[in-house]
């Protein structure tokens, strides 16, 4: 089949990887191939189905668990190895955030002592010895053994290299639009021009770029997230830490070689300015309160992005004749994309009955 994929962010690249095994793929993106304009580039890339279940549906938790099973096979296809970890995560709270911690635990959809357990200082010192020695003691601690994370920028880069080596057609710096189920290309001299019916299927993964072109009444919006990248040679953490915070969950995700991604704020706004002083202070003081070694860390990057979200913050797949649109991954793009890609490939390959189903995910228009 000849398939066009609109948007080479997270979903677009992963779909191209899977579908290029059996189909002829053409990828369009408005950026230069680095993905720097995508939400995927800013993300912390936490894979936390149980922790996220506190504020998400059962279906999201199940898709996240399914995705954690699917990630290793996807990564095996890449030309270069990327940092992927499944060593669990910790949720920590200081005494003053006890109520938030209790509320968080109550809302979790996983099973206690199976998907998560409450731990004490002795167990914390086995898992993260440096945290048990910090001047400020944590009062509430939880271990979620099956959660993971990956390095998003390594992934996006490795996907690009692998796709290029497979000779897929990748049109960079190409803004596209969908009108009457046909692709229009924004030619810098002639404006939008229809490219005609050259494809058997069109898959639209433009994230927030599809804002005005998804199913009527679906109302896509951007949810602002601000994130820091730190280099902290004095900090040794083995796994991501989620710190209870009255306004939004803060993750400290240790990547390779003492690099840390800290984020992210969650603000109902499509403001795409650089992070504010207030947010930077909140994120930095959260880090320092967790581990004093962050005091000497270098701030490598501070940036913001917009998460593509639908009204209920749940993802959706719409089928309209030969066009399939996937969107609304919100703060769960890395958590859910392998399961979303599995669904989309099954639709294309006509074997949807062979993959898990999730209520309300797919809508035929
Ligand atoms: C600060 C922050 C932290 C996050 N942390 C996490 C996390 O820890 N875990 C997690 O699971 N998720 C996280 N996410 C969410 C995740 O990044 C998104 O859900 C995911 O990137 C959505 O994937 P997508 O492919 O739909 O969209 P995107 O990744 O945004 O890709 C869309 C692509 O479409 C292209 N495009 C748009 N319009 C056009 C057009 N008209 N023509 C051509 N190309 C176009 C863009 O250039 C882009 O490359 C985070 C997001 C942010 C912003």
UniProtKB/TrEMBL annotation:
It holds the Pfam family DAO. InterPro entries: DAO (IPR023209), FAD-dep_OxRdtase (IPR006076), FAD/NAD-bd_sf (IPR036188), Gly_oxidase_ThiO (IPR012727). Signal peptide: none annotated. One of its GO terms (biological process) is thiamine biosynthetic process. GO terms for molecular function: D-amino-acid oxidase activity; FAD binding. It is an enzyme of class 1 (oxidoreductase). SUPFAM superfamilies: FAD-linked reductases, C-terminal domain (SSF54373), Nucleotide-binding domain (SSF51971). It catalyses: a D-alpha-amino acid + O2 + H2O = a 2-oxocarboxylate + H2O2 + NH4(+). Residues 2-340 form the FAD dependent oxidoreductase domain. Its EC number is 1.4.3.3. Its cofactor is FAD. Pathway: Cofactor biosynthesis; thiamine diphosphate biosynthesis. Belongs to the DAMOX/DASOX family. This is D-amino-acid oxidase. It comes from Thiomicrorhabdus sediminis.
């Amino acid at each position: 089949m000849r398939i066009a994929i609109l948007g080479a962010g997270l979903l677009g690249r992963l779909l191209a990887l899977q579908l290029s095994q059996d189909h002829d793929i053409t990828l369009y993106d408005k950026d230069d191939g680095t993905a720097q304009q995508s939400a995927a580039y800013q993300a912390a890339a936490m894979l936390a189905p149980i922790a996220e279940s506190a504020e998400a549906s059962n279906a999201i938790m199940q898709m996240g668990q399914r995705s954690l099973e699917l990630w290793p096979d996807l990564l095996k296809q890449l030309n270069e190895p990327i940092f992927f970890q499944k060593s669990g995560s910790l949720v920590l709270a200081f005494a003053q955030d006890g109520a938030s911690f209790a509320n968080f635990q109550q809302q979790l959809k996983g099973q206690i002592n199976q998907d998560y357990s409450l731990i004490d200082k002795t167990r914390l010192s086995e898992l993260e010895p440096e945290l048990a020695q910090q001047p400020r003691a944590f009062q509430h601690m939880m271990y979620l053994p099956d959660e993971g994370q990956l390095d998003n920028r390594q992934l996006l880069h490795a996907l690009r290299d692998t796709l290029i080596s497979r000779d897929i057609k990748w049109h960079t710096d190409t803004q596209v639009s969908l009108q009457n189920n046909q692709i229009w290309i924004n030619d810098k001299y002639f404006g939008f021009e229809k490219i005609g019916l050259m494809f058997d299927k069109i898959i639209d993964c433009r994230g927030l770029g599809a804002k005005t072109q998804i199913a009527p009444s679906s109302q896509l919006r951007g949810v602002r997230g601000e994130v820091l990248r730190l280099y902290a040679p004095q900090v040794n953490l083995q796994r991501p830490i989620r710190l209870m915070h009255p306004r939004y969950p803060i993750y400290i995700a240790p990547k390779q070689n003492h690099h840390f991604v800290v984020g992210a704020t969650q603000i109902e706004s499509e403001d795409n300015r650089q992070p504010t002083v207030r947010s930077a202070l909140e994120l930095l003081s959260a880090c320092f309160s967790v581990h004093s070694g962050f005091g000497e860390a270098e701030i490598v990057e501070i940036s913001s992005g917009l998460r593509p979200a639908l009204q209920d913050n749940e993802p959706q797949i719409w089928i309209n004749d030969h066009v399939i649109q996937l969107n609304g991954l919100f703060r769960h793009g890395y958590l859910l994309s392998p399961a979303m890609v599995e669904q989309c490939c099954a639709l294309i390959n006509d074997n949807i009955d062979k993959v898990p189903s999730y209520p309300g995910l797919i809508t035929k228009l």
